[in-house]
Amino acid sequence: MTDAAAPGGAPPVRWQPATIAKIVRRTPRVISFFFRPQKPFAWRPGQHADVRLTAPDGYTAQRSYSIANIAEDGEEVELAIERLDDGEVSSFFHDVAAVGDEIELKGPLGGHFVWTVEDSGPLLLVGGGSGVVPLMSMLRHRAARESSVPAALLYSSRNWDEVIFRDELLVLDAQGGGFALTFAITREAARRAQDLSRRIDPTAVQIVLAGLPATPSHAFVCGNNAFVSTAADALVATGIAPDRIRTERYGQ
Predict the structure, then answer these.
(1) 95-136, pLDDT tens digit by residue?
(2) Is-above-0.70 flag for pTM?
């Protein structure tokens, strides 16, 4: 296994041991694991980390997960891991892993799908399912910096109970400060007046854009392959230039 290249001539990112410090259930299928790496590192909102599991017979499995929290939170790295029916790594974390366990972790990784308050805005975030995780890091960063950069999150979920970070997002929305939250609930009726009971399409995007003071300077879309393709096309259909849209995909 080769080390990941690091930008700007920085030392390569290497595997290191990390201890599970805390476990928090987010939804019936998503659990946040807080890892304390042996050598703490900083990261930018939107970056990810790899985890690697090694069996007694030497078999290894690794997966990439977006980092949900922000470096300002301290030395722990939060990875929100969704249970996948055929996922050997996610099944281990959901069924076996416990506080105090040690795994291998490598990060931070990725430099394309990142945003900080210095990048300004307006900022449009579009997430589907667990694709909200790197977007949550961006919003937590914005809140921690007490930024007034106009920002909107359009978050698609099958139902209310599967909205990851739901309570925290509702608090951020209630605080205002230039942030607006819209849930697109696809398999049940929306519970708030400002939410949508539909899949993300150009009409849904246009509704959210109406709440921003200008066309987004930065748009980030994250979710599974099909979701990202559909959502990115919807953004372009509403007039957002493709070079302002950054995407991150996972799964099938």
Answers:
(1) 999 999 999 999 999 999 999 999 999 999 999 999 999 999
(2) yes
Q: How many domains does the chain have?
A: 2
Domain that holds residue 135: 117-250
Confidence of residue 252 (pLDDT cuts 50, 70, 90): very low
Sequence-ordered list of residues with C-beta below 8 angstroms from that of 47, at least 6 positions apart, any chain: 66, 67, 107, 108, 109, 110, 111, 113, 114, 134, 137
Q: Which of 167, 170, 153 is nearest to 220 (CA)?
A: 153
Of 141, 180, 193, 186, which is closest to residue 163 (Cα–Cα)? Answer: 186
Distance CA 42, CA 74 (A): 9
Q: Nearest-CA neighbor of 31 among 158, 183, 165, 181?
A: 165
State whether 69 and 136 are in the same domain. Answer: no
